[in-house]
């Protein structure tokens, strides 16, 4: 299914309907926004084929940021796209040209076996194929402008992409996480993501307001898919950022800081999910959000220690 020439692709990372990439087609030319992992490449090429296009028709791969669930497969995908260039944030470009530090950091956290299982091989991209997308950079897809805007807060190497044609943003992780299992009659449910190691609450709130300033019709999230309840979701995200920061400060200095923060974040999200009318039982919501709760707690702790 396409929407303004845009296809949402399930990359298959972690579980179904968790990690999205996007294919934009304009006048027979194509661009991917984010790409998942090396294991996702067949799904991306299959989506391209479903539109009657070949790898030679792809002009761009645009990365919202270089976290591996968004960009781990970039090198492998670029090897299959002979005419494509990579557009990436200035802070992310060096890690795509030489991913050794990115791989080392992830391996230190997850271990070699888990990196191979979850992400596959993380391959370098020749420097001459990399375009540094500074704030305000416009990617031209067959005359369709895709505006790249610097959006720190989740990561300092994060950008979002504005597509005027569809009046929508490709938000990466700036506009939080919104899993379809948590939708209700009130619309989409979302939580912020403070994944380590560069969470900055004030910057994230400014970035969300920057996205809202264009009065978008939709946000296209990596986790997961397009959402249209933009104003209500933005209000929920902004208030939750403040609540999460308060919980982190309350736990700081305690010997059980991490456990306390994991527990309090879980309580926050479960209460908000119940108020939103989510149909899942509390234990199902907790299970669905377990990894995000853990990562959010870790990111908040890194922020506390840096502040």
UniProtKB/TrEMBL annotation:
Any Pfam family: Lactamase_B
CDD domains: ST1585-like_MBL-fold (cd07726)
Limits of the Metallo-beta-lactamase domain: 18-223
Alphabetical UniProt keywords: Hydrolase
InterPro entries (UniProt xref): Metallo-B-lactamas (IPR001279), NDM-1-like (IPR050855), RibonucZ/Hydroxyglut_hydro (IPR036866), ST1585_MBL-fold (IPR037482)
GO molecular function: hydrolase activity
Lineage: superkingdom: Bacteria
Protein name (database record): MBL fold metallo-hydrolase
Origin species: Lysobacter silvisoli
């Amino acid at each position: 299914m396409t929407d303004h020439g845009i296809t949402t692709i399930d990359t298959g990372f972690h579980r179904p309907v968790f990690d999205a990439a996007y294919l934009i087609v304009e006048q027979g030319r194509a661009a991917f926004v984010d790409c998942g992992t090396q294991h996702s490449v067949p799904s991306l090429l299959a989506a391209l084929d479903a539109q009657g296009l070949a790898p030679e028709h792809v002009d761009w791969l645009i990365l919202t940021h270089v976290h591996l669930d968004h960009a781990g497969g970039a090198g492998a995908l670029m090897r299959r796209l002979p005419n494509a260039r990579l557009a990436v944030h200035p802070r992310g470009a060096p890690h795509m040209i030489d991913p050794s530090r990115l791989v080392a950091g992830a391996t230190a956290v997850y271990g070699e076996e888990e990196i191979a299982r979850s992400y596959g091989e993380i391959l370098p991209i020749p420097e001459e194929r990399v375009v540094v997308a500074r704030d305000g950079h416009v990617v031209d897809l067959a005359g369709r402008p895709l505006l790249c805007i610097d959006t720190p807060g989740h990561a300092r190497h994060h950008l979002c992409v504005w597509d005027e044609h569809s009046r929508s943003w490709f938000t990466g992780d700036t506009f939080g996480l919104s899993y379809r299992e948590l939708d209700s009659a009130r619309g989409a449910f979302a939580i912020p993501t403070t994944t380590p190691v560069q969470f900055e609450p004030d910057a994230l709130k400014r970035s969300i307001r920057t996205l809202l300033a264009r009065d978008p019709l939709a946000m296209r999230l990596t986790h997961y898919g397009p959402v249209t309840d933009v104003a209500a979701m933005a209000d929920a995200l902004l208030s939750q950022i403040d609540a999460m920061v308060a919980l982190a400060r309350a736990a700081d200095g305690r010997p059980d800081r991490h456990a306390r923060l994991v527990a309090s974040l879980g309580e926050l999200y479960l209460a908000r999910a119940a108020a939103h009318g989510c149909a899942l039982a509390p234990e199902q919501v907790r299970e669905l959000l377990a990894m995000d709760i853990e990562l959010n707690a870790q990111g908040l702790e890194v922020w506390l220690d840096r502040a």
